[in-house]
Structure formats: C-alpha cells, structure tokens
Amino acid sequence: MTTEIKLGLCNPPEPVYLYVNQGEVNGESYVWYKFDINQDKKIPVTQRALAGYLSELRLITKEFQGKDNIKLEIVVSADELYVIRTSVETNFAKSFLLAASCIQNFEKPLIIAATAGEKNTVFCNLYDAATKTRIKREWSKDIDWASIIHDIQFLLCGTSSTIPPTPKLSVVSQPVHPQDLRVRNIRILLDYPVDLVKEWLQFKDVDRPSLLPEEKIDELIRMMCLAWASDKCKHPNHAESSYQKQVVDAVANGGDELTAIKTWMQHLQTVKAGVV
Predict the structure, then answer these.
(1) DSSP string spanning 145-179?
(2) pTM for the full model?
(3) Alpha carbon of 77 to those of 44, 57, 110, 116, 167: distances in Å?
(4) Of 67, 77, 158, 241, which one has the greatest count of Cβ atoms within 10 A?
C-alpha cells in the first residue's frame, strides 16, 4: 500500500487510541470511544468499524486500583495509525483473536467491527476488506489464548515491507527478570496491594525486586504471605509455623514455590472453615 504524503498544515503523527466499551455520552451511543486526557472526557466514535492493515499486536500491563491489568493493543495502519486498546479478558479481545487466528497472510486489509452485545459487552467481527467476507472461528473452552497471540505476532513479524511500518509507540516488552516475575506472581496470587510492595521497595532504596539479594525477596514474600494469613488463624504462630513447613521447607526440597503457597493458602482456609 502506498500512502500519498500531503504537505502543509497537519496534526502530529500520533496514534489514535480507541477504547472498547459500550455506553452513552450526551444521548449518543457508542461501542468504542476516544479519550481526551486534558479534559478528562470520553469522545464517542460513531463509526462501528475500522478498515486497515493489522501491523502489530502487543500486550502491555497497566496498573488499575492497585492491581496489574493486561491490555491487548491492536495496531492498525490506515489513514492514520490506530491503536485499539482493551483488556485481554474482554469478549472483544477474545472474539478478535479467534478470528485473527484464521488468517495466514496479514498483507491484506481487514475490517475490524465493534458489535454491541447484552448489557455492556462488546464483541468483535473481523472481515476481509476486499471481499467483505466475515472471518470466523468456533469458540472452544480449551483455547490457548497465549499461543494464539504468539502465533499472530509471529506472522506479523514476517509481513511484507509493502505495508507501512508501524512505529514502536508503546513500551516494548522486555524479558522480565525472574525475581521481578516471582514477586509479581505471588503478589497477584495473594491479592496483595502493589502500593505496599512499592513502599517496601522504596524503604530498601530500590524500585524493583531484581535489585535486591534473594534473601530480601524471601523476606518480602514471607511478609506478603503472613499479611494474607493474618485473619485466617486464631493463633499467629500457626500461620508462621505452617508457612515454614509447607512453603519454605517444601521449596528447599525442590518444590515449586507458587504451588506450595497455593497449597498453604488452601490449608489455612480449610482450618478457618473448621473442617480440620
């Protein structure tokens, strides 16, 4: 695809972000919208479809109410550069990924359509822009979403240079340090507030776990676990002793830490319920 460059006054070449959601603003219904950060308001997009070339698919992490939320960004090259952003767990993201997984050649333009469902749900219909044919794949409870995303990203990396290149506009995913990943996974499992982790790290004069020795990370994880258990046991000593036995000792004997913590949590919840 060749793009004519128009000379003269124009807007900066910044991406147009579309956020998927069903709602109404000033009596105007929408299924996706733009957001004016300066005025803190939603701007409904009345067109329900976007035609262009899928040029990139990426996952980013956004913090919301103290928790990490994984967002899917669908980057589309058209008259402008568009980025459709939605949670990876939404019906829109999953219906898009299902359809996109059927495509083997992303050198052809697509039409991405947002379709309202019941209540506030929004689904995605994907079409071949040339034939107007809808691309579909049947739903299955056994779908491996991570594999689908990886396969699409792999195909996009090999698309033809005739498609306009997409600037790297968001944070490029970098390999996560094992220590950072360890803390993140356990924090999410425990539903421990991320702000408290940041506060603890600041007290240690660092901004991420990977800058600390392993014994300090053990200390952080122990603190998070015992905070979770604070209302699960009548006697605090039981939480500490069971943590030492079921987590620390299990890991020392070659067990998986995350699995050991899950087992320990289940044990304490069973005790609290009075089953044992």
Answers:
(1) HHHHHHHHHHHHHT--TTSPPPP--SPPP-PPPHH
(2) 0.55
(3) 21, 12, 10, 24, 10
(4) 77
b/e per residue 81-108 (b: at least 16 CB within 10 A)? bbbbbbbbebbbbbbbbbbbbeeeebee
What lies within 8 Å, CB to CB, of 225 at 6+ separation is: 186, 190, 243, 247, 261, 264
What is the Cα–Cα distance from 32 to 54, expressed in whole angstroms? Answer: 18
The helix/strand/coil state of 241 is: helix
Query: Cα 125–71–40 angle (5° rounding)?
Result: 95
Decide if 135 contacts 44 (C-beta within 8 A).
Answer: no
In degrees to the nearest 10, what's the CA dihedral of 122, 125, 129, 131?
-150
Looking at 24-174, list the stretches that DSSP marks H as alpha helix, in order from N- to C-terminal side: 91-100, 145-157
Helix/strand/coil for 204:
coil
- Give, as one character, the DSSP assignment of residue 137: -
Q: What DSSP designation does 253 have?
A: T
* Residuewise pLDDT in 10s, the chain (276 residues): 455 677 888 777 788 999 998 888 777 788 999 988 777 788 889 899 999 999 999 998 876 666 677 899 999 999 889 999 999 989 999 999 999 999 988 989 999 999 988 877 899 999 999 999 999 888 877 788 888 898 898 888 854 343 334 333 333 344 567 888 889 889 888 988 888 888 898 888 888 888 889 999 999 999 999 999 988 877 768 889 999 999 999 999 998 999 999 999 988 888 766 644
Task: Please answer whether residues 261 and 225 qualify as being in contact, where contact means their C-beta atoms are separated by less than 8 angstroms.
Answer: yes
The single residue listed with the structure tokens 């128009």 is: 6
